[in-house]
Amino acid sequence: MANSGQKVVLITGCSSGIGLRIAVTLAKDEKKRYHVIATMRDLKKKDKLVEAAGDTYGKTLMLLPLDVCSDESVKQCINNVKDRHIDILINNAGVGLLGPVESISIEEMKRVFETNFFGVVRMIKEVMPDMKKRRSGHIVVMSSVMGLQGVVFNDVYTASKFAMEGFCESMAVQLMKFNIRLSMIEPGPVHTEFETKMMEDVAKMEYPGADADTVRYFKDVYLPSSIDIFEAMGQTPEDIAKCTKKVIESSSPRFRNLTNSLYTPIVALKYADETGGLSVNTFYNLLFNFGPLMHITMSILKCLTCSCLRRRTISPN
């Protein structure tokens, strides 16, 4: 139970990666300003979080089961919070999907949207009425740079993040009238166990329905380039947790928060040309015409940044 003066923070998707680090970072706040409710679909996967939380577990951090794809689970979770009072909701739960779109079933696509989009909508719908009554609250959504700029072979994942960005951009205007803030956190590549395993798995998979050239472009062109980008520009879950903490502690939190300054010019390409041709042609050339040059550039960038720029998080103030 939260102590007087503590803000109640509910976080989805805390079994690993970014969600785990955000939960632990807030629970270990030196001033003990937060009572963290860390959630996950299967509490059998709690061991990593409990270990990382240390002596904060049971004090400033507690666990609740939550499946963001279930209306009943979402309602039950919020009902288990004292007075249904949540000051800060951090929507972190998400799933990825990578590969040629011809080989991805509609059911697989629906599962991505069920978590990445409708899961966020369910959570916001459940906590928003109480926040409106109190005229107070902060909703944080873990988006992605792919919610701003499409990336080849990430078609469905990108679409789910675009949908969420549009939903939140619309909601933010209404929520301001009730003194509720809405913030998007937009990381680029992040080194997590999930991402590493996904990269390994997709390289071994067959892609029925996709032609041989497309599969070759995916495996021999896109995947090596993607690995180069991850190694040169990737951040850690700790970096994203620090960024998120800054956002919720800001007196005037931004709506959009790119966590990696190296991605600013990439996103800017899209808005520099209203026809869209500049960004599409740039990414095409980088991938298919200048692949070897891009590999060399990423290698140089990796050496030059020495993790400093890659770990640079935003400063909301």
UniProtKB/TrEMBL annotation:
Going by the UniProt record, its keywords in alphabetical order are: Lipid metabolism, Membrane, NADP, Oxidoreductase, Sensory transduction
Catalytic site positions: Y157
User: Record's PROSITE patterns?
Assistant: ADH_SHORT
CC per GO annotation: cytosol; membrane
- Residues forming the Ketoreductase domain are 7-193
Per UniProt, NADP(+) binds at 13-41, 67, 161
Q: What is its subcellular localisation?
A: Membrane
The record ties this protein, via SMART domains, to:
PKS_KR (SM00822)
Q: Report the protein's function.
A: Retinol dehydrogenase with a clear preference for NADP. Converts all-trans-retinal to all-trans-retinol. May play a role in the regeneration of visual pigment at high light intensity.
Q: Which family does it belong to?
A: Belongs to the short-chain dehydrogenases/reductases (SDR) family.
Matching entries from PANTHER family are given as: RETINOL DEHYDROGENASE 8 (PTHR43391:SF8), RETINOL DEHYDROGENASE-RELATED (PTHR43391)
Name of the featured protein: Retinol dehydrogenase
Q: Which organism is it from?
A: Myripristis murdjan
Q: What is the primary gene name for this protein? A: RDH8
